[in-house]
Amino acid sequence: MKKSALFFLLGLVTLNASVIKIAVAANVSYAIKPLIKEFNTSYPDTKVQVILGSSGKLTAQIKHGAPVELFMSANMKYPEALYKEKMAVTKPVIYAQGALAYLSVKQQDFSKGVMLLTEENIKKIAIANPKTAPYGAAAVEALKNANVYDTVKNKFVYGESISQTVSYATKAADIGLIAKSSLFSPQMAHFKEGINWSDVNETLYTPISQGMVILKEGENNSEVKAFYDFMQGKEAKKVLKTFGYRVP
User: Fold this and answer.
1) Burial letters for 44-80: b for 16+ Cβ neighbours within 10 Å, e otherwise?
2) Rounded CA gap, 45 and 19, in Å?
3) What is the pLDDT of residue 148?
4) pLDDT digit string, tens, across residues 211-243
5) pTM given for the model
6) Which residues pair with 178 in a beta bridge?
7) Three-class SS of residue 246?
8) Which one of 3, 27, 194, 233 has the lowest number of neighbouring Cβ atoms within 10 Å?
């Protein structure tokens, strides 16, 4: 084959390989690769480019013109705000419900529940920044409802996103309040339930309903719509369940 013909064919391949850009809340960072892999079984020519961060910071970037076509938030608040401001073209839908969990490198007595955080040997508690990360806001809500917030707030080490909070929980704190979904990644498999981690009592915080919208940038993109539909379908739900999420 002549070089010019080969370059022409390579050019066609490049043209056919579409790229869609999605903003994804940090708690989904552990599940997003398996989700994209599953999506690509039906759409092998679509490359999904992911921007990760706290939902609040991602929303700020979108409002300042970040070229993002779809937003997967850690709660409904931020996509609802974007829809209200006409920056999103679909009403927010729930794609998953997340949960909080305690995580500690050291063995802990989780039968004590939230009161474990008040003990003297727990000197640093990692939580996500409640101003920008919905899981951080849920953690604060849980501690306030358990009437221990004022006792433990001076122990807080804040992560800017839930993934940074996981890092702090394993390296810079005695325990952390994290997204349960992070515990199901292969890198976290050595942490054992009942020894290193446990669920936070779900009656202490408002269910974390995670919302999704198509943004103005992706309004007429059929592949963005395909990913949006995929995230509400049975194959995506199957993946999300393996990461500890509840699905609608």
Assistant:
1) eebebebebbbbbbbbebbeeebebbbbbbbbbbbbb
2) 9
3) 98
4) 999 999 999 999 999 999 999 999 999 999 999
5) 0.85
6) 101
7) strand
8) 3
Distance CA 173, CA 98 (A): 23
Tokens of 117: 């955080």
Q: DSSP strand E in 99-196: where? A: 100-103, 125-128, 156-159, 175-179
The CATH number, out of the four listed (3.40.190.10, 3.40.640.10, 3.40.50.620, 1.10.357.20), of the domain defined by the range 98-204: 3.40.190.10
- Same fold yes or no, 3-97+209-242 and 98-204: yes
- In the structure encoding, which two tokens stand for residue 87, read together? 């920056």
Token pair 């920008």 is at which residue?
132
Strand ranges for the chain from DSSP E: 18-25, 46-53, 70-72, 93-98, 100-103, 125-128, 156-159, 175-179, 197-199, 208-214
Say if CB 100 and CB 138 are below 8 A apart: yes
